[in-house]
Amino acid sequence: MRDRHENLFSESRFGSLDLKRGLCALLSGLVLSRWCLALAMLFGLCSGCTSWKQKMAVRDSESQELVEQVRVATESGRQEQAAELLKQAVASNPNNAAVRHQLSEFLVANGYSEEAIQQLEKTTVLAPDDPRPYIDLSYLLYEKKQYTDALKNLELGLNLDPTNIRALLLKGELEELAGLNPSAVETYHRVLQVEPYNIVSRLKLAALQIKQGESNRATPILRPICHNTAATIDQRAEAQWLLGVAYGSQQRWTDSVASLEQAMKNRADVTADDWYRLAYACLQANEMEKVYPAVTQALTLNPLHTETNRLSSYLTQQTNLVNIQQASMYTPLQRPGIIGQEAPPIPIDALQPPRGWERRGRLSISSASVKPE
Fold first, then answer.
1. Domain range spanning residue 138?
2. Model pLDDT for residues 334-352, shown as the tens digit of each residue
3. 46, 47, 154, 156: most buried, per Cβ within 10 A?
4. Nearest partner of 139 among 192, 194, 164, judged by Cα
5. Is residue 70 assigned to a domain?
6. How far is CA 143 from the centre of its chain?
7. What is the count of structural domains for the chain?
8. Mean of the per-residue pLDDT values for the chain?
9. Sign (positive/negative) of CA torsion 355, 357, 362, 364?
């Protein structure tokens, strides 16, 4: 009996061992299968990633090749072909922000601003960390007079690139348009912190200071630009003109005439208002020989210019009185007593001063020009 129990126990024990071994083998197989499956999936994903990256690389390569063909076509004057190639480049890789940005630049250069705006808007979505599309978009919106949207995109660009000169200059202009002159002054000073000799910012700052009645702060900024060889001819002419305006607001009329005349030599698109300003300054400086030509030029550009016509009437009256005096030396006059009389001074107070010169002294044509102390 005992032997039988031992045999049963032995069989049961060994049977249990076999069962355990079988279970272990099964579990090991399952674990191995899952591990293999995981590896297979991992390799499959890696293979998929590699394949996707390869496809994107191919697309980028194709886009860049098309962009290079665009450059060649543009330089050869084949604009229509260049436009078609750029469209192909975008179509082949619509998520390539760089290609879209290049397309927008091409569109702007060829006058397609609306299409360029659309491309730049898509570019800002594809490359939200690139400040250039925001800034370029701001300039296009500014040209469309969509000032609010322009400023919004400009702020996004400046958040990414706070020292961008183009963006800061446009921000100053938008602030001026909005009447935020103190903010514009601050913005132009920000430009000068980055580029102390930035001529554009200096000109804008000086013009704004003159507008605010602070011409004494503008003249030290403008004088160096007038002789700066790094400035363009137009920039020097603009500085010379603003300097003449600044001198006039300080009633330094002789200096004003000299600066305005110098600016006229190189100033583009001179208007009737500009000639009237020169005539008015010459009148205040008692340089009558320069008043007549300036009035003639103003009326040639705009025969209906109100203030110039009023000044012309006074000049005509003076000329007629002088002619009467000359005639009286040889012929008897119906109105005795005119001989030896001087022509009356032109009443400058009756004339409307040019914009920016409203705060002027009560001077007449016979008054001496005010000299700086």
1. 62-161
2. 444 444 455 567 788 888 9
3. 154
4. 164
5. yes
6. 10
7. 1
8. 79
9. negative
